[in-house]
Design goal:
Layout (H helix, E strand, L loop, with lengths): L3 E19 L5 E21 L4 E6 L11 H12 L5 E7 L10 H16 L6 H9 L5 H6 L2 E5 L4 E4 L6 E7 L6 H11 L12 H9 L2 H7 L1 E2 L2 H7 L2 H11 L4 E4 L6 E5 L2 H14 L4 E7 L5 E5 L1
Parallel strand pairs: 1-8, 3-4
Antiparallel strand pairs: 1-2, 1-12, 2-4, 2-5, 5-6, 7-10, 7-11, 9-10
The structure holds cytidine-5'-monophosphate (C5P).
Cytidine-5'-monophosphate (C5P) binds next to β2 and α5.
């Protein structure tokens, strides 16, 4: 029987995304607070007799299956680093929206690193896997650790944050995505001529997390990319307004968008929000998730 491993990996939202000025390397210095939420992709990685890496989508998803797929890049990197010579088939069952601002592609890279570590018994520590992940993309390291964490640098230097309790989120998912580089570019355009200060994480947000205080957290949510995402997709403003009108404790575009995350007071409140947002007609797909949840985890290894 072929060796095979399955990994489950969650998407993330950013509770805060503070974006510094554009740097010479084309990136922005960030101070961000990530939270993993219970919307999962599942990857099954198996050894094959043929050469090379093959990506296959399970279900109706339209992910790229070539070298631009971040799972492919992660597999290639792991094979090179650890002299793995067998072929690999990576099947991806996607629930995290593509180009949705929830690190869906990065999560697939994180899951691939964790999966290959397990499949070949490499014995890598979590921080070693995160370091490898940072070679693929800024959001990859967080997808490996998950939970609630501060990201600095490009967002790739991850430190866990004390977070009490579980939060009820309602996600408004868009049918079409936004390109992350395009949103950063629009952010630079909107801020042209302004003096941009060093990014920082707000104390009130961290305190809200420490105390498990959803009301304060709702007020502290902030995203420097939100104006840019709304500029490229004006419908997002309406979605944000509707969620707040229906009593969300706070609402925010996640990362570079276009997913919008609303914080609810309780599970029941989240259910009410789902119904209200769905019947408002401004958004097609509304789901309820909880956070934080752990990052990429092996669910079977045979
Ligand atoms: O690292 P990753 O490939 O996920 O980043 C995608 C793009 O997002 C970068 O090419 C850059 O345009 C933008 N980005 C940025 N500053 C960051 C992270 C990402 O400008 N800290």
């Amino acid at each position: 029987m072929t060796n095979q491993v399955s990994v489950r990996v969650p998407g993330k939202i950013n509770l805060q995304l503070s974006v510094g000025p554009l740097q010479r390397d084309g990136y922005h210095e960030l101070a961000t607070v990530f939270q993993s939420v219970s919307l999962f992709d599942e990857l099954t990685i198996s050894e094959t007799d043929t050469d090379g890496i093959e990506i296959a989508a399970i279900g109706k998803s339209t992910i790229p299956i070539g070298g631009e797929n971040l799972a492919y890049k992660a597999a290639e990197l792991m094979c090179n680093k650890f002299d793995i010579e067998t072929g690999l088939l990576i099947k991806i069952k996607k629930e995290i929206p593509i180009a949705g601002g929830m690190a869906g592609g990065s999560a697939n890279a994180g899951a691939t690193i964790v999966g290959i570590d397990s499949l070949f018994s490499l014995g890598l520590k979590r921080d070693e896997m995160e370091r490898i992940g940072s070679e693929i993309g800024a959001d990859v390291p967080f997808t490996i650790s998950g939970g609630t964490a501060i990201g600095t640098g490009r967002g790739d230097q991850v430190t866990p944050v004390l977070s009490r309790g579980s939060y009820n989120w309602v996600l408004a998912l868009s049918t079409s995505g936004l390109s992350t580089p395009a949103v950063y570019k629009e952010c630079d355009r909107l801020r042209e001529g302004l003096d941009i200060s060093k990014p920082h994480v707000s104390d009130s947000l961290l305190q809200a997390l420490t105390h498990g205080d959803a009301k304060t957290l709702g007020k502290a949510l902030s995203n420097d990319l939100q104006a840019a995402a709304c500029s490229l997709k004006p419908a997002l403003r309406l979605i944000l307004d509707v969620g707040i009108d229906y009593g969300a404790l706070g609402g925010i575009v996640s990362g570079s968008g276009p997913t919008v995350a609303f914080l609810a007071e309780s599970e029941d409140h989240a259910l009410d929000l789902v119904v209200a947002l769905t019947s408002s007609g401004v958004v097609g797909n509304v789901i309820r998730v909880a956070g934080p949840v752990p990052g990429a985890r092996v669910i079977s290894n045979t």
